[in-house]
Each structure stands twice: as structure tokens, then as C-alpha cells.
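User: I'm putting together notes for a lab meeting next week and I want to include a structural view of one of the chains we've been expressing. I don't have a solved structure, so I'd like a prediction I can at least talk through. The sequence is below, exactly as it appears in our construct file.
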Amino acid sequence: MPRSVRFHEYGSVDVLRIEELETPVPTADEVLIAVRAIGLNRAEVMFRNGAYLHEASFPSGLGYEAAGTIIAAGSRATGFTVGDVVSVIPTPDMSRWPTYGEVIAIPARYVVKHPAGLSFEKAAAAWMQYVTAWGALVYQAKLAANEFVIVSAASSSVGIAAIQVARCVGATVIATTRSGAKAQALREAGAHHVIAVECEDLPARVEEITGGKGARVAFDPIGGPAIAQLAGCMAAGGTLVEYGALSSEPGVFPQFSVLGRSLTIKGYLYTEVVNDDAALALAKAFIVEGLEAGRLDPVISRVFPFGRIRDATRFLESNEQIGKVVAVLDG
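Assistant: Thanks for the context. Below is the predicted structure for the 331-residue chain, given as C-alpha cells.
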């Protein structure tokens, strides 16, 4: 029987168990995938801790991303045949369609034939980060050529994806990181400017870089006090997109910056893309074309075997990575 990762209660990484389960039976709209690689996300950590948008129903699986080969297809899963090499776009509900397993059933709507030259590891690392970044920067904020964008916590997989997506549309990227330890890696990942916020004055540096204009777009997963600081770095008419809540501290609403600069502060979830047929089609086209051309290239920090899923998750939680953490299964 195929192995899957499940947890029977909320808690630390130690609650994750690898269990043998019956092979899932795909519905008419689903495909069955023999998984070769799994991409790990912070959303799964929050879900396991009971701090996510959805609650678990125990015992619960988890996971948003995977890549592998189709081994069966439902009657309405058109466009796919057995043997197709595919990757998974994050579904709206990981508890219903988990990806941490050797064999998974996923609705065909969230499955993509990725470019032939893309490895399983990179394919499994692509969709959460690029859908999230594209949806916020291009679809929502309308980021364009010759505009400045601030990417906070830029060493995360989504942060690096945002750097690449912004460069695809010709924008100038200002990446932020806590210390200077990851600055060179961020420059190599494509950031035009890097600001280490623990040892540099963020508003002063942004003002210097932008010639006093400020950034037209900011993309932030931290929240808390960082929102007010970012608002002070924005250009008139700018858009600050908040896609996470990594800070446990409360933030003060930056009313003077918002009013004085006519700012938009937008909460954003990747589901705004995947739940909308037109937006999802645009995202697929942009991302597949970018992957084929090499303008989008997932950065993988470290690869673990599936049997060490706890170690892979601990590494993800350590914040040491630059890019994506991936688990691989035997081919």
C-alpha cells in the first residue's frame, strides 16, 4: 500500500507520521498521480499547528504541491492520459486533497503538464510560489516595467519567485532581509537592491534607491509593525499587498501614510487566483511560458528523501533556507 504523511493531533513536527493507506480512488474529475517530488510550504506548518485558515479533521493529511506521473484518470478529467508527467497547483483545501504521499488524487483543474525539461524537484517547487507572486504582483497590483517593488522576507521561496516575476515584467526589485547573511544570494537570485533591515534604515534606503519617489508596490508576508514601516516607503497611489502574518506582534494602522499617499493596502490569498477560472488560466499561461523560457527558475534550497519528512519540515521551520525545501520519492 502507498505511504502517506498524516497527523492525528495538532503539534510540533513530531506529530507527523508516515502511514500505509489504501490507494485513493479518483473521482470522475480527478487524476491519480504517482508522486516523485513534494514541495513544502509554511502553510502546511501553520495547518499542522492549528493556526491556518482551515481546520484539520483527524487523522489528517497535508500538503499543497507535488509532481509525478499520472497512473489513472477519471472520466471527466479530460486532457490527461496515463503516463503524462504533471505537477500540482495548490488546491483550495489541503485537508481534502493532500499531496504528502506516494499516490495522490487531485482534481484535473489543478494539474498541469509542466515543461518537459523541468525536473520533478523543480516542478514540485513551482506552483505555490509563482501563483502567489503572479497573483499579487501582476494580477492584483498591476506591476509594470520601470516601477519599483519592495519584496519583504525575500529569501523565502515566494520571495524569490516574486523577484523573478517582477523582473519578467521589467520592474526594479528592492529585496529585504533581516541581516546581510543572505544579501549576496538575493542579488544572485535577481534582486536589483538588497536592504538588511536589522542594520539599515529601510525608509531612508528606499528613498535613496527610488530617488525620493518610493515604491509603487510592496509585497509582504510579515505584517505587524512592518506594515506601518512599509507604508512609509510607498509612492503616491501605491499598493501594499499583505499575503502573510509571520509577525506575532500587533501592527498600528498607518493612517497618515495611507491618507497622505492615497495608498491601497490589500490582503491577498493565492485562492483568489485558483478559485477564478479566468485568473487561473492567465496564471498557468504566464508561469508555463516563464518556466519554458527559463525566466522563472525555482530555487531549491535542499532536497530530503520522503522518509525524512520530519527533518525536511524542521529545516523549513529553521528559516535557514534560501528558496524551496523539497522531499523526493523513489522513481
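A couple of points you could mention at the meeting. The radius of gyration is 20 Å. The chain has a mean pLDDT of 94.

User: Perfect, that's what I needed.
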